Amino acid sequence: MPPKSPKTTGTRVAFKAGKQETAGYLALPRSGTGPGVIVFQEWWGLVPHIEKTCDRLAEQGFAALAPDMYSGRSTTNPDEAGRLMMALEVPKVAEDVAGALEFLRTHKGCSSARVGVTGFCLGGQLALWSACKYPAAVAACVDFYGVHPNLKPDLKRLRAPVLGIFAEKDAYVNAQVVADLSAALAAAGKHHDFKTYEGVNHAFMNDTRKDVYDKTAAADAWSRTVEFLRAHVN
């Protein structure tokens, strides 16, 4: 097993996904157990920012797992990130997500029968897609400005409530995209609560990106996320 990262409080783990093994990052609360949450990466990969998000959830009492959807690859280059994101194959994604859900739900540190899912950008779409693909395993979904053209959530299958977090100045997930998703969820009879933050950009939650990070919006969105997960994952 890879060594523990010196900059984070969790541990790199490995778990079965289909016929293969995949990696992830697991952070547990100080008590040793807590409700489970899957954290899906941005298009950069399983980078320290995502590990830190798991650590922060663990500090709030959750058992948080971030699966490595790129099989060990990551980047800081936007063009390469786009290629990695678009190279994801839906059948492999389904196996990795199923493996992550099984690993977390059966881990001794997870106290909940169903788990929450959340993520940012690519990860936001993965969260919503996963909640629809595996409705029996997912109790709540927090979608941070989710986007991926090939991951199409089957909203009819969704059982979990959805908290959607969006940015007013988002060139990828603009106001029309948000309105269309809200309308589709409403038409399917699914409970959802959307919040769009004025004057901020896509990825405003990522404090490693000073060009887009917004401290005030990020703090409020984080508070909403924790409250939502506590209300629905237990």
Description:
This protein has six helices and eight strands. The protein is of the alpha/beta class and 234 residues long. The protein has one domain (11-232): Rossmann fold (3-Layer(aba) Sandwich), CATH 3.40.50. The chain has an eight-stranded mixed sheet with strand order 1-2-4-3-5-6-7-8, sandwiched between helices. β7 (162-167), α5 (175-187) and β8 (192-197) form a beta-alpha-beta unit. The two termini are 29 Å apart.
Task: Give the topology, please.
Layout: E1 11-17, E2 20-27, E3 36-40, H1 48-59, E4 63-67, H2 78-86, H3 90-106, E5 115-120, H4 122-133, E6 138-144, E7 162-167, H5 175-187, E8 192-197, H6 215-232
Parallel strand pairs: 3-4, 3-5, 5-6, 6-7, 7-8
Antiparallel strand pairs: 1-2, 2-4
Question: How many DSSP-defined strands?
Answer: 8
- Kindly identify the CATH topology: Rossmann fold
State the strand order across the main sheet: 1-2-4-3-5-6-7-8
Order of helices and strands: EEEHEHHEHEEHEH
**What does the radius of gyration come to?**
16 Å
CATH superfamily: Alpha/Beta hydrolase fold, catalytic domain
What characteristic shape results from the CA principal axes?
Answer: globular
Termini separation: 29 Å
Chain-averaged pLDDT:
95
Low-confidence stretches: 1-8
Main sheet properties: 8 strands, mixed
Q: Do you know the CATH architecture?
A: 3-Layer(aba) Sandwich
User: Which class best fits the helix and strand makeup?
Assistant: alpha/beta
Helix share, percent: 25-40%
How many domains is the backbone divided into? Answer: 1
CATH class: Alpha Beta
